[in-house]
């Protein structure tokens, strides 16, 4: 019903066809591979990586909060709108691609995290950071349209919402990052009551791990031995959990637990008051 009310080129399957045709055949596999830059595990690792290398613990925590809020909002909105993907209207799209279309979670997550990094970072010039972030966001959004799993309107809305989340979270300095982690997890858990549940395990698991590590470090600042190795293993674990979830269909509780443990270790490594130099 909602999509019928939005009968514009943004939700027209023929626009997907036109955009896909405009991409040269040799470049299509590359464009389609770029979609993984918007995977939940990827943007989560990027957010934690920024927290690791950034000079400000507070800014690092806020970029992570941006990622978690983005996941929670994605899950909630998909569950509210429950709009189908265009796969049935597009011959080139994968028939078995599950989940709902609006908004695009990949575009939303990429816009939120890459936008947040561009805003919060201190290296290079702001204009250059924004240009790089903008390019990544456009590529991820384009890949979703080329794959045929989203309409143009899905990715445009996702990108706009993601940027709004990045700006909003980074410009709310009075809210403790730990509370933002908890709010994101709670919102994602509540959205489990809706039909859209794809982002729930990752969001709740990551939020639990982040909240636990954040407040544990505040109560007892400790030196984390081998923090470089621990962070690297945690990042690999997140990617592995994502792969197992998409290829093997592991139970949601295992996915939730995997993200919780991996994110807790990564947060302790990246945001701990004391880190062991290696």
Automatic annotation (TrEMBL):
Ranges for domain Phosphatidic acid phosphatase type 2/haloperoxidase: 61-170
TM region positions: 61-81, 101-123, 130-149, 155-172, 177-193, 199-217, 229-250, 256-273
Gene3D superfamilies listed in its UniProt record: Phosphatidic acid phosphatase type 2/haloperoxidase
SUPFAM superfamilies in the cross-refs: Acid phosphatase/Vanadium-dependent haloperoxidase
Keyword Membrane appears in the UniProt entry: yes
Key words of the record: Membrane, Transmembrane, Transmembrane helix
Pfam assignment, any one: PAP2
Protein name, UniProt field: PA-phosphatase-like phosphoesterase
Lineage, broadest ranks: Archaea, Methanobacteriati, Methanobacteriota, Stenosarchaea group, Halobacteria
